[in-house]
Amino acid sequence: MKRILTLLSIVLMSTITNAQKANDEQEVKNLVATLQKGWNTASGETFASAFAEPHDFIVWNGYYFKNNPIQKNAEMHQWIFNTMYNNTHLFYTIDKIKFLKEDIALLHVLGAVVSIDEARPKDPEVLMTLIAEKKDGNWKIVSFHNLDLEVFQNEEMRKSAPVPPAVMYASWYSENSKL
């Protein structure tokens, strides 16, 4: 009888753990969906709501905003939505989610920005690395690094890549992984 109770306890704990992990994975995916929604509705406030207070933010060109407040992120993104990225649409594809600890997640996300009337581009333009942390039951982004994918902009670079870029970034091309 003890063995049966022990076995049932293990199965129950495993089921609960797997359900919580699936819930956490969905919540982390929701952060990326919030970023995309903020961009596509031109709302700096919505975009910044996915971030922790404070957070680190590294832009594709190397600008590094250390300990960035949410309000500053919102203002910065509202400015770009109103100016250089006015009337644009953002496409994201989550390439990878890895839980480093139960309250720390690493994400790799492929993205592209196009004019509002354009379709999803053939190739991704940027690769974001996000670190999300769960505090007080809520997931927020604590670090965001945006990398320009020059391999898709330079034919020589594409030809000399150690792995074909379409293989390296295969999730971008998969219908199942698009947000």
Helix/strand layout:
Layout: H1 2-40, H2 44-48, E1 51-58, E2 64-68, H3 70-82, E3 88-101, E4 104-115, E5 126-135, E6 138-148, H4 155-159, H5 165-168, H6 170-173
Parallel strand pairs: 1-6
Antiparallel strand pairs: 1-2, 3-4, 4-5, 5-6
Shape: globular
Integer average pLDDT: 90
Compute the CA-based radius of gyration: 19 Å
Q: What class would the helix/strand composition place it in?
A: alpha+beta
Domain count, please report it: 1
The helicity comes to 25-40%
The CATH class name reads Alpha Beta
Uncertain spans, ≥5 residues at pLDDT below 50?
11-17
Order of helices and strands: HHEEHEEEEHHH
Oligomer classification: single chain
Query: Span from first to last CA?
Result: 48 Å
Which sequence of strands runs across the widest sheet? 2-1-6-5-4-3
- Percent range for β-strand residues: 25-35%
CATH topology: Nuclear Transport Factor 2, Chain: A
CATH architecture annotation name = Roll
DSSP helix count?
A: 6
State the total count of DSSP E strands: 6
Explain this structure:
By secondary structure, the chain is of the alpha+beta class. It has one domain: Roll (Nuclear Transport Factor 2, Chain: A), CATH 3.10.450.50. It is 39% helix and 34% strand. It is built from six helices and six strands, in the order ααββαββββααα. It has a six-stranded mixed beta sheet. Strand 1 and strand 2 form a beta hairpin. The longest helix has 39 residues. It is globular. About 4% of the residues have low confidence.
